[in-house]
Amino acid sequence: MQPVYRRVEVIANHAMTPTRFRTRLAVPEIASVIRPGQFVMVRATSEPVSDPLLARALALYDVTEDLGAVDVVYDLHGKGTRTLARVRPGDSVTILGPLGRDFGLPPDDGRVVWMVAGGIGQTPFLALAKWWMGRFAYAGINPCYGNPAPREVVLMHGGSNAQAVEGLEDFLAVGVVGLVATEDGSRGWRGRVTDLVEQRRREADAGLCEPPGLIITCGPSAMMAAVARLAQRMGVPCRASLENPMACGFGACFSCVAPIRQSDGTTDLKRVCLDGPVFDAETVVWDEM
């Protein structure tokens, strides 16, 4: 599908926390075709203003039931996200999308899926969980490409404190099992999310919960690398949604390249915006990220 580039209306924009925002954009051309795992480039400033010059890459969080709008969620990191956080209903922003590759198929045997997120890394997972569980707005049109829904979807979300794992209620509302880990112990498991994953693995080994047929991860590279190693030890496939900074979103600038191991054992620098952002985790050369 060809990406759409246009100015669109802001329907809603609200703070989930003092530093995390959810913005709804009226863009049916994108909402009706975008798939979980893909992203859009959003720029809040109007011409001829060019500060900030570059758009921000934001993962699809959700689509509205009427397929008229998309939701994106983001943390405040710099001028681009601060500018976007200030928009109000009725304002307009520039959007380009859908971009990148989606998450693809769930396990073909309906097995459990673990989603492991760090920080803002949960944002691609709400739409994915809803899609694979048959609750996405257009899931009935093409439900999981014919694969059965996972018997259970478990989100393990980690952050430095309770504010960093805000948004769990959105997942619980659609039937996802939600577990959180905070480094300061202010919510859920005290420690890193990788510690929580290890605990869940031990519970699966003890027969206390069903082991996963697939692990999905998104967040800081070090966290994803640890999750990828754990998945490899478990003999479970793992897909990683990389968060490399993107300047253009369509492969022209080569600013988002990641080292990806090829079938012949060599390493090639692949553009995350075109070849990803979702990769098989075992192909990512994590030590070079």
Structure commentary:
A hairpin with a 5-residue loop joins strand 5 and strand 6. This protein folds into two domains: 96 residues, Beta Barrel (Elongation Factor Tu (Ef-tu), domain 3); 130 residues, Rossmann fold (3-Layer(aba) Sandwich). 19% of the residues lie in helices and 32% in strands. It has seven helices and 16 strands. With 289 residues, it is an alpha/beta fold. The protein starts with a strand and ends in a 9-residue tail after the last strand.
Give the uncertain stretches in residue-range form: none
Number of strands: 16
Helix percent band = 10-25%
Order of helices and strands: EEHEEEEHEEHEHEEHEHEEEHE
CATH class of the largest domain: Alpha Beta
Please name the CATH architecture of the largest domain. Answer: 3-Layer(aba) Sandwich
| CATH topology heading of the largest domain | Rossmann fold
Sheet with the most strands: spatial strand order: 4-3-7-1-2-6-5
* Number of discrete domains: 2
Radius of gyration: 18 Å
- What general outline do the C-alpha atoms trace? globular
Number of helices: 7
Beta-strand content estimate? 25-35%
What do we call the CATH homologous superfamily of the largest domain?
Nucleotide-binding domain of ferredoxin-NADP reductase (FNR) module
Mean pLDDT over all positions:
93
Sheet bearing the most strands, described?
A: 7 strands, antiparallel
SSE topology:
Layout: E1 4-17, E2 20-26, H1 28-31, E3 39-43, E4 56-59, E5 62-63, E6 69-75, H2 79-85, E7 92-99, E8 112-118, H3 125-132, E9 153-159, H4 168-172, E10 177-182, E11 189-190, H5 193-205, E12 212-218, H6 221-234, E13 238-241, E14 257-261, E15 267-271, H7 272-275, E16 278-280
Parallel strand pairs: 8-9, 8-12, 9-10, 10-11, 12-13
Antiparallel strand pairs: 1-2, 1-7, 2-6, 3-4, 3-7, 5-6, 13-16, 14-15
Helix pairs in contact: 5-6
